[in-house]
Amino acid sequence: MLDTIFEYTATDVALTWQHALWTLLTAFILGAVISVTYMKTQPNYTTNFALTLIILPSIVGIIILLIGSNIARAFSLAGAFSIIRFRSAAGDPKDIAYVLFSMAAGLACGVGAFGYAVLFTVALCLLMMTLHLFRFGTRKAMQQQLKVTIPENLAYEDVFREVFQHFNVDYDLKRVRTTELGSLYELIYTIALDKNANPKALLDAIRIRNGNLDISLTMTPPVAEGY
Predict the structure, then answer these.
(1) Neighbours of 92 (CB within 10 A)
(2) What's the rounded Cα separation, in Å, for the pair 39 and 47?
(3) What are phi and psi for residue 95, nearest 5 degrees?
(4) pLDDT confidence tier of residue 156, bands split at 50, 70 and 90
(5) How far apart are CA 54 and CA 103, in angstroms?
(6) 199-213, pLDDT tens digit by residue?
(7) CA dihedral defined by 24, 30, 36, 42, rounded to 10 degrees?
(8) Taken in order 59, 105, 28, 7, is the CA torsion positive or negative?
(9) Are 191 and 185 in contact (CB under 8 A)?
(10) Which of 27, 99, 117, 179 could be 57's S-S partner, Cβ–Cβ 3.0 to 4.6 Å?
C-alpha cells in the first residue's frame, strides 16, 4: 500500500480529468494546512498572504500538469510568465520560506507525488510549530528606536554612554544629523531594552543630560529573527 503511494515517475503522469482533480484537491488541502500553520506561527500575518498560501500550491500544480514532459511547452510558459512583474517590498524571511514551502507542495502534487507531498507538508508544518512553540531564535530584549536632540556643544559620540551603561541598555548609534541651522544635533539610536527595564527612568536620565530637548522613543514590538 505504502509502496504504491510513494512510488512515482514524472514521465508516467498524464493530463487526465481524474489526475487533475486529485492534484487540485490535494494541493488545496495541503495549502490550507500550510496557511493555518503560518497563521499559528506568525502573529502579525496579513489575510491576503494567508489566502495566497492556500491557492499557491494549486496554481503550481496546474502549471506542472500543463507542462508535463513537453519541453517546448515549458519554454512557452516560461516566456509567458516572464512578462509578469511583481512590484512589492522585500518580505519577512519567514514569509519567503512559506512561499517556497507552498510551491514545493504544489510541485509535488503536479508531478503526482501525492504521498511525498503529504509527508513533507506534515513534517515541515510540525517543524514550524515546534520552532514557534520553543520560540527558537527570539530575542529576549525589545528593540526600539531612540531619537535624541542635543546641543552642538556636546560630544555626541559618548554623551549618553554612562546613562546606557547604568540602565544596562545595548545601543547602536545609527545616524547623526544637524537641525536648527546646525545649532542642534539629532541622534538616532537602536537600543535593546530588557523586559524589566523602566523606559521612563531612562528617558528622565537622558532629559537631564540633553537639557530637556526633544526625545522620541518608538515603542516597536520585539524583533523575532527566528521561528
Answers:
(1) 14
(2) 9
(3) -65, -40
(4) confident
(5) 11
(6) 889 899 999 988 889
(7) -110
(8) positive
(9) no
(10) 27
* Adjacent-strand bridge partners of 171: 191
> What's the rounded Cα separation, in Å, for the pair 36 and 34?
6
Which long-range CB contacts under 8 A does 64-72 form with residues at least 24 apart?
64/106, 64/107, 64/109, 64/110, 64/111, 65/13, 65/15, 65/19, 65/20, 65/23, 65/110, 66/15, 68/13, 68/14, 68/15, 69/10, 69/11
Taking residue 71's Cβ as centre, other Cβ atoms within 10 Å add up to 9
Cell of 225: 529573527
Q: Would the pTM of this model clear 0.85, i.e. be above it?
A: no
C-alpha distances (whole Å) from 156 to each of 111, 144, 210 are 62, 19, 10
The answer to whether 90 touches 7, Cβ cutoff 8 Å, is no
Number of residues assigned to the chain: 227
